[in-house]
Amino acid sequence: MSENSLDIRIVSISATERAVSMRLPFQFGDTVVTETAEAFVAVKIETRGKIFNGLSAQLMVPRWFDKRPDQTNADTVNTLRQSILQACKSAKGLSGPTAHICTAINTGVLEKMPKVTPALAAGFGPALVEMALIDAVCQAAECNFFDGAHQDIFGLTERAGPGLSERMISQGLSSIRPKWTMQIRHTVGADAPLYPADAEPLVNDDGPVALQDVMDRTGISAFKIKLKGNVDNDLKRLMAIAPLLEHCKNLAVTLDANEQYSADAFPVFLKGFQSTSTLAKMRDATLFIEQPFAREIALETEISNDTGTLPLIIDESDDHDGSFAQAWSLGWRGTSVKSCKSVFRALLNFCRVQHFKSEGHEAFLSGEDLTCQPGLCLQQDTLMGAAVGIVHTERNGHHFAGGMQGASNKEISQITQRHSDLYDASGARPALRIDSGHIKFESLNEPGFGSSRSLDVSNDTQILNK
């Protein structure tokens, strides 16, 4: 156990939500999201005789955690609510190092959720509680998240096991340093408009809609393009996007199949992608392809020469702490980090990557976005990504969800003024301040995790089973 680890006791915990209507329909995988809710967990801890508060936020995105065909968008969001409630129940009265508490919460939730619940969905509530505890513990230690992780005030060395020793964890965490800028990788939705003439005008919204407008206003040159699992249609979509990227300097591209490809169809797509001359620049700039296969088979699928012509990473399959190591042994070369899947898991996978690299192997993490809208959700997720060395992170919540929905005007004003390096409040709604494709966020350099001080969730809707 780390000598810097803090013992804490959970005094109280609660969960609330705010309704969110998407400013733009967001299509990925087999669903279109037009509305959902953002969940908040508030926790009060006691350590060293003093009380500290912590807060976390995540959008409850339909049909990403749970893609069972018999579940509607609303059904899958209700499953996430159930996971949050079970996590809060499991957390009450627990004491010890933060990582130890979070292990107990996760175990308790997995035992109480219906057995048919996908592990990714069951883990959503524990991840939210974990983030709130991180916020409170960093405030108790009077340090920012980078320093808290560097010093391991959470007791993460407890998670050591086969293939991940205490020494590997300590060495990895000790290499974490503050980083206050990051490149943005813009999400091109499956049916998102490419040119202004293709876009429907929005009411009371002066933000960009079409891809061309996004590029002109922000200088973004890194893109994540959604695929739908149909070879011909996906190649046509890429060919339609390619002219817009032709003159990008320092172009970076990733492709995301959201589990939509079969093992037979994916090599056919790769062959077409490799051989289509009009996709040459895009292909040369493509860094990896994300989760082409369903989670049910991905961790049983060995990556062959046919499927591994570009590095593949897991995303939806990353539903437990050992998933990346399992995938890596099969030829997958990376995994995504998302705060909704566990910040501690991201830190542990960072330690794995550092170890793999030290032995001369290829391994990497990617920063992907679960529709983090501006505010605490985006701030916490950004700090996590920066801590584990992400160079460019996907950001789509600010584009599809919009700006701080559900927050009061007072809260929006406080956040945008306190973090004017990160947000632009000059338009009809608060927006990310993106300059030459990058964001800056040194204003988050304060005790805690993501600067939760401006938020008041006391009047929000209490999360209930629906």
> Whole-number radius of gyration?
21 Å
Structural class: alpha/beta
Query: Proportion of β residues?
Result: 15-25%
Largest sheet: 9 strands, mixed
Give the C-level CATH assignment of the largest domain: Alpha Beta
- Spans of at least 5 consecutive residues whose pLDDT stays below 50 are none
Please, what is the CATH homologous superfamily of the largest domain?
Enolase-like C-terminal domain
Mean pLDDT: 95
Give the helix level as a range of percent: 25-40%
Tell me the CATH topology of the largest domain: TIM Barrel
How many H/I helical runs? Answer: 16
For the record, give the distance between the C-alpha atoms at the N and C termini, rounded to a whole number. 40 Å
* Count of structural domains: 2
Write down how many β-strands occur, each being a DSSP E stretch of 2 or more residues. Answer: 16
CATH hierarchy: architecture of the largest domain: Alpha-Beta Barrel
Describe the global form: globular
Structural account:
This protein is α/β, with parallel strands linked by helices. The protein folds into 2 domains: 154 residues, 2-Layer Sandwich (Enolase-like, domain 1), CATH 3.30.390; 274 residues, Enolase-like C-terminal domain (TIM Barrel, Alpha-Beta Barrel). Helix content is 35%, strand content 21%. The longest helix has 19 residues. The two termini are 40 Å apart.
